[in-house]
Amino acid sequence: MRYLGCVLGISAILLIMAGCSVSKVYQERQFLAMDTLISVELSGTEENVQQIQTIIDELENKVSTTNQNSELYQINHRMANTVVLSDTVAQLLHDELEISETTNGALNPALYPISLAWGFTTENKRVPSEQELAALLPKTNWRQIQLSGNQLTLMEGMELDFGATAKGFASDLCATYLREQGVKSALLDFGGNVYTIGDNKEGEMWKIGIRDPWDETAQNFAGVLESTNEAVITSGSYERYFEQDGVRYHHIMDGTTGMPAQSGLVSVTIVCESGVKADGLSTALFVMGLEEGSKYWRQYGGFEAIFITENGEQYYTEGLIQRYEPSLEKKAEVIYQ
Ligand code: AMP
Ligand code: MG
């Protein structure tokens, strides 16, 4: 109703001021998709918001590991070793494999048998035995994924999962659509994975709170980042975990051991123009840890990062100095080139 009033108001002004440009109506919507609450704010039309939801639903219907009708489910339950992918899934796998290559497998789309054994997708969470993990690890060699155009060949027993990149990829698809539509201001929030377009409705840069990993209410921030026209994506061990015998096990796996990555980090945030890259790197650099992650940033560049360590320290790359305000009690240090 609020928007309807606004629309009528604008129409009335239009009648009087023919020829003048009219600012678009501000739209806000929340919905559940991709296992998370998605919030969309944008200056545009109702149809723009609806289309965002459609884009996300369509992607989810392709890459869900559990929906038996999804393309990914069909891939993982294939009858022959070679399958033909849709353009969308071929692109996503191609993008993820590029990061697997540069991160030396820290990002590994073939880890699904391991995640499944831990029960992170089925919610039957459990600690697999060493023997079980040892038997599964040979099925997770991402170098054996053969992708040629849309043709994918997988060894028997291999299974894929795009949990580490799909939300970032979805944000890219949405951002491309919104730019084509001439939308100048938007915030897409996939449960903490954010994409910003232009400025907020006050005409200022978007202010993105980086979650305090120790605050279970998710109301407090480790810091605030000013952002425009980019993805801001966090991987954190607090996002999905369970406890057994006093030990906490989280969902970001180290492909060399089949165990939750223990790199000394609790979260990694990546800031860059590409959502799929930010999402893939947030997972990969979480696995690699602060030292290796900083090395990677120095070698490849093209993104900024915020690392939060287990003891509450923050380290952020120098490109963020002007626009990141850390607020945890412990020290916050800049990583220089
Ligand atoms: P994210 O929250 O973006 O860090 O992604 C975590 C999700 O990616 C997990 O829930 C798994 O589905 C999947 N995953 C876990 N570990 C890895 C890994 N090392 N490489 C690729 N995907 C992973
Ligand atoms: Mg990720």
Could you please describe the fold and organization of this structure?
- The protein is of the alpha+beta class and 337 residues long.
- It has a domain at 12-46 and 184-335: ApbE-like domains (T-fold, Roll), CATH 3.10.520.
- It has helices at residues 2-16, 46-63, 71-76, 87-102, 112-118, 130-136, 166-180, 275-300; strands at 26-33, 36-43, 82-84, 146-148, 151-153, 186-190, 193-197, 206-211, 221-227, 230-236, 241-244, 247-250, 253-254, 259-260, 265-272, 304-309, 314-317, 324-326, 332-335.
- Strands 1-2-6-7-10-15-16-17-19 form a nine-stranded mixed β-sheet, covered by helices on one side. Strands 3-5-4 form a three-stranded antiparallel β-sheet, with helices on one face. Strands 8-9-18 form a three-stranded antiparallel β-sheet, with no helix packed on it.
- It is globular.
- The structure holds adenosine monophosphate and magnesium ion (MG).
- Adenosine monophosphate is lined by residues 107-109, 111, 115, 120, 161, 163-164, 235, 239, 251-253, 255, 279, 282-283, 287.
